[in-house]
């Protein structure tokens, strides 16, 4: 018979236990469903009884929740679900993710929130070229942007280059009204949106005007060598193999490049996606990393993760 483990935790005095257990005890109920161990909350104490491994995991979870509330944040059910997943995979503790702050802006910390996202940001730190492949909402572009802005602020790079392919090049683009910039602006606007969420707009615009931050279509990269730069190639599933090779060979001294894309959202009218092909060519080469993100790494509305999972199941059945 397995011997039960008994541990009682006491929350620090400033901690509001109502925040720890959640509105209408929703966090407590979530933990009770996730673990077989018995959880008893009375006042500012939490008594845990059950399998030793489960009790230790719950100790880590409640300790993290206490720290979160102490720091003025409010935990919620999605946060706890991600924390449980981390502990189950035995890769990172919730505290390790919470303390990995990539960038702070107006009192808001940007950090990885899942094991997949943590692997991703660590890969960017440790490699010159990083590929992030996964569905919408997994933080591919947003986390890369945070890493780029942080590197610029620490003066690790002298500039940021943000680029996207424009699939509607040629005749369709030509029929759009306005100057060339006005025609391509809608396609690169999401990069501006991400940037403005990390910089004051006035400061960001000043950096764009002086060339410290450059946002441009991929076609504008041809013939250049980009030194001392943090380069992000977004929506790379819409590159051709030739465009992918061209983008990767722009890499200069003192630079990093992060390539992001979702191979389930290819809009190329014909031919092979450069992002699909590149793995078979470059995987295994030193200083190049491939990171696969999935539905478990979606940190948008919980329904987005459900939709992504449904499409992943459908794709699996179609194979």
Features:
single chain, 319 residues, alpha/beta, Ribosomal Protein S8, Chain: A, domain 1, Rossmann fold, 2 domains, 6-stranded parallel β-sheet, 17% strand
Word description of this protein:
There is one protein chain. The protein has helices at residues 17-21, 26-34, 52-70, 77-89, 94-98, 115-126, 140-153, 171-174, 180-196, 201-209, 241-248, 274-282, 302-318; strands at 5-10, 38-42, 45-50, 103-105, 108-110, 129-133, 159-164, 213-217, 229-233, 256-261, 288-292. The protein is α/β, with parallel strands linked by helices and 319 residues long. The protein folds into two domains: 5-98, K Homology domain, type 1 (Ribosomal Protein S8, Chain: A, domain 1, 2-Layer Sandwich), CATH 3.30.1370.10; 109-318, P-loop containing nucleotide triphosphate hydrolases (Rossmann fold), CATH 3.40.50.300. Strands 8-7-9-10-6-11 form a six-stranded parallel beta sheet, with helices on both faces. It has a three-stranded antiparallel beta sheet with strand order 1-3-2, with helices on one face. Strands 4-5 form a two-stranded antiparallel sheet. α6 (115-126) crosses α7 and α11 (241-248) packs across α12 (274-282).
Summarize the structure.
With 319 residues, the protein is α/β, with parallel strands linked by helices. Helices cover 44% and strands 17% of the residues.
Distance between the termini: 45 Å
Q: Please name the CATH architecture of the largest domain.
A: 3-Layer(aba) Sandwich
Using the coordinates shown, work out and report the CATH topology of the largest domain: Rossmann fold
Taking pLDDT < 50 over at least 5 consecutive residues as the criterion, the unreliable ranges are: 169-176
- What is the domain tally? 2
Radius of gyration: 23 Å
Strand content: 15-25%
SS-derived structural category: alpha/beta
Helix content class: 40-55%
Looking across the biggest beta sheet, what order are the strands in? 8-7-9-10-6-11
Order of helices and strands: EHHEEHHHEEHEHEHHHEEHEHEH
CATH-defined superfamily of the largest domain: P-loop containing nucleotide triphosphate hydrolases
The biggest beta sheet is recorded as: 6 strands, parallel
Mean model confidence by pLDDT: 86
Number of helices: 13
Overall geometry: elongated
* Counted beta strands: 11
CATH class of the largest domain: Alpha Beta
